[in-house]
């Protein structure tokens, strides 16, 4: 018997002894259970690997192991929502504060709030965040403005910078600027306007230009995920993920597919781990009770 064959036999015997097949022993957990009544919205995945979820009910941050499925509340919320989330390479979780009109930065090791930023004193909905161009950028679905946290040398700033949105985007009734991502060349931002289904290339100065999708729209566009030149747009109430192939500058793109799955129940935001995309089911069409069940599900990257 060759050494390679012997290794395979030993691996198989170990897997059987542990009550699992070799494939199952290495399979990712595809559905992550979240606490009853949690009302998830945002998701971010770190390298360790853990998935982090924000509660739109009270702002709690819940951390789940992608290896075991076990989770716990990492950081108690302020009583207002935690929506879009992103993690940087220093282990800091950037949180969009929804109707609280704020942003927070949380240490993913301790759960401590490193810094809190009041962004708006008027009615607002700080919806999502992206880390690019040496800064964290936040959208406001109620007011035509972005908020920028400059991260020079990785240091958190004392205050956020207000960046008004100008150009072609026009705010109207409902959720406006929602998900946000970088362009493939990293020189600008992409913002989805949920109520119109339009995507806008947005300069760091806030000048917006509609991205040419050849007449296509992505209504109910929510979380965005950029992978190379492919942009994945979660269309929440439609239970879809649209895949858009962009040019490098992010000025034009083509919708090359849409993915759905029976496990989708109004997914909102999106993150990648391994060869799968993970999405929290916000269940907007289900009454939000203390006993309402919630989860996050995954699909292969289309």
Describe this structure in words.
Strands 14-18-17-16-15 form a 5-stranded mixed beta sheet, with no helix packed on it. The chain has one domain (31-300): YVTN repeat-like/Quinoprotein amine dehydrogenase (Methylamine Dehydrogenase, Chain H, 7 Propeller), CATH 2.130.10.10. The chain starts with a helix and ends with a strand. The protein contains 2 helices and 25 strands. The chain has 302 residues and is mainly beta. Residues 1-25 form the signal peptide. Keywords: Signal. InterPro entries: 6-blade_b-propeller_TolB-like, Host-pathogen_enzymatic-act. This is Superoxide dismutase. It comes from Paractinoplanes tereljensis.
Summarize the structure.
By secondary structure, the protein is mostly beta strands. 6% of the residues lie in helices and 44% in strands.
Helix and strand layout, with pairings?
Blueprint: H1 3-17, H2 22-25, E1 31-34, E2 40-45, E3 50-55, E4 61-65, E5 71-75, E6 85-87, E7 92-96, E8 102-107, E9 113-118, E10 126-132, E11 135-140, E12 145-150, E13 161-164, E14 166-167, E15 177-182, E16 189-193, E17 198-202, E18 207-210, E19 221-227, E20 230-235, E21 240-246, E22 253-259, E23 271-273, E24 276-280, E25 294-300
Parallel strand pairs: 14-18
Antiparallel strand pairs: 1-25, 2-3, 3-4, 4-5, 6-7, 7-8, 8-9, 10-11, 11-12, 12-13, 15-16, 16-17, 17-18, 19-20, 20-21, 21-22, 23-24, 24-25
